[in-house]
Amino acid sequence: MSVVENFSAMNKVVVGLSGGVDSSVAAATLHHQGYEVVGLTLWLMKGKGQCCSEGMVDAASICEQLGIPHHIVDSREVFQANIVDYLVSGYEAGITPLPCSQCNKAVKFGPMLHYARTELGIDKIATGHYARISYNPDNGRYQLRRAVDLSKDQSYFLYDLAQEMLAGSMFPLGEMLKTETRRVATEFNLKTADKPESMDLCLVEHHGSMQTFLDGYISQKAGDIVDKSGKVLGKHTGVHHYTIGQRKGLGIAAPEPLYVIGLDAVMNRVIVGDRSSANHPECTVARVNWVSIPQPTAPIRAEAQIRYRSPAVPVTVVPVEGDRIKLVFDEPQFSITPGQAAVLYDGDIVLGGGIIERQQ
Predict the structure, then answer these.
(1) Which distant-in-sequence residues (6+ apart) come within 8 Å of 321 by Cβ?
(2) Where are the alpha helices (DSSP H) in 147-306?
(3) Which residues of the chain does CATH 3.40.50.620 include?
(4) Average pLDDT over residues 124-133
(5) Residues 6 or more apart in contact with residue 334 via CB below 8 angstroms
């Protein structure tokens, strides 16, 4: 049973509106079902793109079309502290941070729920994410699940949501295919029905590229590109321009393809090797949030997804200490990247997830 079915049609709900087609359809669908909908847009940055000035205008237009109130909350300082500073410090340290899961918890869901409850007296929020929520009476926990449309599933980015956030959230698009979302937008004659889908991180969309964004905060410091033995093979323009697993743009002539296998921010070196050097059988994961199950005290079997677009693969999950775990893969994995998320699944259920600390 989906969480949506647990509420009567007259409940009030605050819908997070970015100005894109997905959040627009979420608001229109709930409004059509009889919910008393209030639109809420977080002002994260100035400029073009969803969540920016352009997105706020489109969100306001959707609210006007639906005849619902629209609130805008200035969240630029929160976004700067939790996302921009987080990204910059991570890249400076030689890791590749994943901003989306951090943003969902610290910038979006937490603050949205707080604003809805304290300022509007409304207990529930909804977003246009492709994911599902259910309740498991056996362990008394809300479960985060993959969306029906696996090609659009966003549960990977939502693993860090706390139980209170899941209990107060709704995902109206979780049971829909993307093609159905577009169809519904057209049927409701929404302004955003034909709006192109954002394909990049908001910062990339805003600045043109991640490199351009980072160069505004991190000075370019040239250094050596070396192999595992320390032999200098070439030069780089800044460690923050590279990520684990990268093959293109190295500027090195070699008899076989070379990949980035390590980033040494202290020595200002980019370490490269052949593809086999980028495969690892284990990794340590920190800051683990157990979503749908209590924290295990003994090893368990699961499937781990270590990148958004990669398939989930079989692993043994070994508790280490505190909020850390070790993942032992059935087969070595390519390009395990510190700073990215490792999300654990049992079928379509998100068991938990955390941030990759190091590969082994």
Answers:
(1) none
(2) 163-167, 178-187, 202-207, 210-215
(3) 3-207
(4) 98
(5) 245, 275, 278, 279
Report the side by side order of strands in the sheet with 223-226: 232-236, 223-226, 269-273, 259-264
Q: Has 63 been annotated as catalytic? A: no
The active-site residue out of 51, 63, 100, 202 is 202
Q: Which DSSP symbol is given to 190?
A: -
At 341-352, the pLDDT tens digits run: 999 999 999 999
Given the residues 51, 52, 100, 103, the one annotated as active site: 103
pLDDT at 209: 81
Report the topology of domain 279-359: Elongation Factor Tu (Ef-tu); domain 3 (2.40.30)
Percent of the chain's residues with pLDDT above 90: 83
Tell me the average pLDDT across 325-348: 97
Q: Distance (Å, rounded) from C-alpha 154 to C-alpha 48?
A: 23
Reply yes or no on whether 51 is catalytic: no
Residues of the chain with CATH 2.40.30.10: 279-359
How high is the mean pLDDT of the chain? 92
Rg (alpha carbons) of the chain, rounded to whole number: 22
| Res 59 pLDDT > 50 | yes
CA distances from residue 192 to 17, 42, 139, 256, 283 in whole angstroms, order as listed: 11, 18, 40, 47, 42
- pLDDT tens digit sequence for 11-54: 899 999 999 999 999 999 999 999 999 999 999 876 555 566 67
pTM over 0.85: yes
Measured distance CA(145)–CA(148) in Å, rounded? 9
What is the third-level CATH fold of 219-273? SH3 type barrels. (2.30.30)
CATH class of the domain whose range is 3-207: alpha beta
d(CA 155, CA 129): 8
* Closest to 289 in 3D by CA, of 171, 155, 175: 155
28 sits in which H/E element: helix 21-32
CATH 2.30.30.280 spans which residues of the chain? 219-273
Size (the chain), residues = 360
